[in-house]
Amino acid sequence: MKSAILGLLSFGSVVLASPASGDAGKTLDLAGVNAVIISGEASSVRLTTSASAPYQATIGSRREGWFARWYSSWFANDCSLASDMRLEASTLRIDVASSSWPDPSDCRVEINANIQPESSVSIDQAALQANMAGNFSTIAITSKAADVSLDGHASTVDLKGDALKANLAFDSIRQDENIAITGKALDATLSFGQGVAISYSVTATASLVDSSLASTAGAKPSVVIKGDFVRATIR
Length: 235
Hints:
There is one protein chain. This protein is an all-beta fold. It contains 1 helix and 13 strands; from the N terminus they run E-E-E-E-E-E-H-E-E-E-E-E-E-E. Strands 3, 4, 5, 6, 7, 8, 9, 10, 11, 12 and 13 form an 11-stranded mixed sheet that branches. Strands 1-2 form a two-stranded antiparallel sheet. It is globular, with a radius of gyration of 20 Å.
């Protein structure tokens, strides 16, 4: 059993392992940062671009699953300790480590970052829940299973996943928006506002498309959706 979670019961006593070194509870100053890159295993991500809050990032974790409420009494490690968060010039880079087997409780790594408006976001993870609020330049996400939401604006959105749920609500239109959503099973809701001219296409083996906006050739926002099984709502 891995040394970071040794929990040995001996004659009624509990032996706790010493926590490993890592970035749990760490806060990074993101002044000057205009790009975020996240990779690795599963995480919950919240990104904002608020000018009224400090530009900073934190990483933490919580445990879920049937063993979670007993876990902290027996084991000393934080499940985000093995994850790495660092600055590389103007880029925040986060690598999320997987929980080592045989961990008796699911680990949910939580990432929170407030970054400068018009920053770029790139995420490549096995599983992901991402909530983004604010104005971004580009958002590129690749994941086997993902639940992605945007409330704000991005000029480029590129989402790829086997099982993908997307809720994109644009609070402004600049007529430079390119949105691509690709995967096997897709559930996408896109909101642009009343009377907005958009162009869109849906290519799928089976699809259900509900749009209150007509497709206007050459217009932007441009939306391209491709998948095996697709449900799309456009407003």
